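Final report, closing paragraph on structural work. Over the funding period we assembled a curated collection of sequence-structure pairs, and we close with a single example.
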Amino acid sequence: MQKSVFVKFASLAIAGVLSQGAFAADGTINFTGEITDAPCSVSANSQNMTVPLGKVSRNVFGITAPGTTPAVTAATVGKKSIPANFTIDLLGCGATAKGASVSFSGTADLDNTTTLRVANAGQAGTAAASGVAIEIADSAGAKIDLNTGKSIDYPLGLGDNSLKFQAAYIATKPAVTVGPANSTAQFTIAYK
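Its predicted structure, as stored:
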């Protein structure tokens, strides 16, 4: 009797092994990520975002047509467009997360190295705007110098937190030309 039970179990085991061939692989899934010692996680929406600065008339920088009152033919260096707000969301902050500051890095403008240089991003045959750059600031409008500065210290509470910022075009030369004005920056969060 025991021999019969053993033979039945052995037959089932062999059938199970042979049936595995029916489950052939049709593709591969790669899982990526990283385990960190950071007290918060950066939201996936904040890791790769687009901040639209809009279509801004070059007149915003102080340029008007000759013969108008007042007759201004050059941009006012340092004059800015209306800022666009953006948020970096931190998720699941624990008790050790008391505060955070953010620094931004990217390709600096040649005339104002604390701001982002604009470029023509993939639009063949169209020259990029010139005489402008992108300035990043905290929610109160305090400028955050590119590649060297950091934001104010934002207090963090338990759970999810939103760090608010703004970006605006800024005139860097008296001559502002029209065209695409895109740029890319990376951010780094330092926890307190």
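The helical segments are 2-19, 44-47. The chain has a mean pLDDT of 83. We thank the funder for supporting this effort.
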